[in-house]
Automatic annotation (TrEMBL):
Residues 52-74 are annotated as: Disordered. Keywords: Cell membrane, Coiled coil, Lipoprotein, Membrane, Methylation, Prenylation, Transducer. This is Guanine nucleotide-binding protein subunit gamma. GO terms for biological process: G protein-coupled receptor signaling pathway. G proteins are composed of 3 units; alpha, beta and gamma. It is a lipid-anchor. SUPFAM superfamilies: Transducin (heterotrimeric G protein), gamma chain (SSF48670). The gene is GNG11. Belongs to the G protein gamma family. One of its GO terms (molecular function) is G-protein beta-subunit binding. It comes from Macaca nemestrina (Pig-tailed macaque).
Length: 74
């Protein structure tokens, strides 16, 4: 098992090396406009909303969390 790495314990030079390495990875990422991505996400959600049990609900006979019995407190 490897020990946890605490950034604050590293020398400043090592912190900067890690930051540069991370920035090099990030600069290679393909970026898209938020307006385009949000429209695609909205369409994806709307297309599948009929299948979504959180939107449509779960039929009582298929609900695994349905209470099996009732409890009466008197």
């Amino acid at each position: 098992k490897m020990p946890a790495l605490h950034i604050e314990d590293l020398p400043e030079k090592e912190k900067l090396k890690m930051e540069v390495e991370q920035l090099r990875k990030e600069v290679k990422l393909q970026r898209q406009q938020v307006s385009k991505c949000s429209e695609e996400i909205k369409n994806y959600i709307e297309e599948r909303s009929g299948e979504d049990p959180l939107v449509k609900g779960i039929p009582e006979d298929k609900n695994p969390f349905k209470e099996k019995g009732s409890c009466v407190v008197s």
